[in-house]
Amino acid sequence: MSVLENWDEWKNFLGDRLHHAQNEGMNDQVINNLAFEVGDYLAKQVDPKNTQERVLSDLWSVASDQEKQAIASMMVKLVQNNGSH
């Protein structure tokens, strides 16, 4: 099963990547910009594998760039307390 197929596993995966980036000294602006790029890539290239991803994909498809930045920022906040730390 792919990490994309289970919402909790996906959040833990993202949380681990976020903690790694923070431990390497990446600042919040860079992290949010990367989250935006990942979100844009996923929306264009990856079929949603669960209901939560479908909602995010649908929101992303109608959002302005500013709104997409906000969604990316909220995803970073969402996964901050996930992962193995």
Automatic annotation (TrEMBL):
Name of one Pfam family that matches: DUF3243
InterPro entries: DUF3243, Uncharacterised_YmfJ, YmfJ/YflH_sf
Protein name, entry field: DUF3243 domain-containing protein
Species of the source: Metabacillus litoralis
